[in-house]
Specification:
It is built from ten helices and nine strands. It is an alpha/beta fold. Helix 1 (14-25) crosses helix 8 (212-225), helix 3 runs parallel beside helix 4 and helix 4 (102-130) runs parallel beside helix 5. The radius of gyration is 18 Å and the shape is globular. Helix content is 49%, strand content 15%. It has helices spanning 14-25, 37-51, 67-78, 102-130, 154-172, 191-194, 198-203, 212-225, 234-245, 251-258; strands spanning 5-9, 29-34, 55-59, 82-87, 133-138, 177-182, 187-188, 210-211, 229-230. Strands 3-2-1-4-5-6-9 form a seven-stranded parallel beta sheet, sandwiched between helices. The protein has one domain (5-258): Rossmann fold (3-Layer(aba) Sandwich). Bound molecules: NADP nicotinamide-adenine-dinucleotide phosphate. The site of NADP nicotinamide-adenine-dinucleotide phosphate has 30 residues, from helix 1 and helix 6. Residues 9-16, 34-36, 39, 60-63, 88-91, 111, 138, 140, 184, 186-187, 189-191, 194 line the site of NADP nicotinamide-adenine-dinucleotide phosphate.
Length: 266
């Protein structure tokens, strides 16, 4: 049986973990990437036990500029042709822009931006040679939202990812490669604790919060179909529609109830 390999960054938790499960259930062989070796090991064992999957992991901190090359070399040495690259790893910074050290901003932009570009750049040539490749970018509803007073660079970097993904489609669709920007809204994962906004997340109405396994299912289906943009669930589709048609000056009014903290944290 021909094995298709998928590489998933941020596979130790949340959306990336659920994407790994969906891909394993579809018969993909997996390379999981994150910093936590203990979690990656457990996820691999679980995927092998539950899905009879071929799964391996590579411990890597995407803050390190050398990480994308090391990840690629690991796959090359093992002889894995990655036909599906999932750029998922991410977080947001917990402190106000003026209080955040520049080094932390640089690391953030590296993990959510430069590492995504670098991984795509290094895995793309093999996809071009084989005339086959899928790239999934986990972006966010924030890519479409007006600027926020917290996590100042989060929305802009996700907008960048959407534009980057569009550019890839323009350049490489004719060569058999597609890129899908997946744009979820509030998803129940470790993200909000890791990003210092769990209290705000707790105040978000439950109809606005979705489970990670649901997001993962939609994300994988959209990517395998080669969709350009995927906004999982009707709720997030409606929000993005409203973000596109309503004046952005109205959003601080709604946000007190629907997106607490976006416009009023110091
Ligand atoms: N949750 C939401 O509401 C939401 C909404 C829209 C978009 N998103 C996006 O979804 C993606 C996944 O987030 P999530 O919600 O699933 O959060 P999560 O549960 O906190 O998972 C984040 C993943 O990224 C990995 N990661 C973080 N920093 C890393 C680094 N420096 N190097 C390598 N891996 C790193 C983490 O693993 P280790 O800690 O083991 O390294 C973990 O596996 C992110 O891009 C996020 O922006 C989330």
């Amino acid at each position: 049986m021909k094995k298709e390999f998928a590489l998933i960054t941020g596979a130790s938790s949340g959306i990336g973990l659920e994407i790994s499960k969906v891909l394993a259930s579809k018969g993909f062989s997996l390379v999981l990437v994150a910093r936590s070796e203990k979690k990656l090991k457990e996820v691999c064992q679980d995927l092998i036990a539950k899905h009879n999957a071929t799964a391996t992991y590579f411990v890597s901190d995407l803050e390190d500029p050398k990480a994308p090359k090391a990840i690629f070399e690991f796959c090359q040495e093992k002889g894995y042709f990655i036909s599906l690259l999932v750029n998922n790893a991410g977080y947001a910074l917990p402190t106000a822009f003026h209080k955040t050290p520049m080094e932390a901003e640089e690391n953030f932009l590296r993990v959510l931006g430069i590492a995504v570009v670098a991984l795509t750049k290094i895995f793309l040539p093999n996809m071009i040679t084989k005339k086959q490749g899928k790239i999934m970018m986990i972006s966010s509803v924030a890519a479409f939202a007006p600027p926020s007073s917290i996590q100042t660079l989060y929305g802009p970097i996700k907008t960048f990812i959407n534009r980057f993904s569009e550019g890839l489609n323009l350049s490489y669709n004719a060569m058999g490669i597609t890129s899908t920007a997946v744009c979820p809204g509030y998803t129940v994962t470790n993200f909000h604790t890791a990003s210092g906004v769990q209290q705000e997340m707790d105040r978000v109405p439950s109809f606005m919060k979705k489970e990670a396994h649901r997001i993962a299912q939609v994300a994988v289906n959209a990517t395998l179909k080669g969709k350009r943009v995927s906004i999982p669930t009707k709720t997030f589709k409606l929000i993005v529609f409203l973000l596109k048609v309503l004046p952005h000056s109205l959003f601080p009014l709604f946000s007190k109830k629907l997106a607490p903290g976006r416009y009023n944290k110091e």
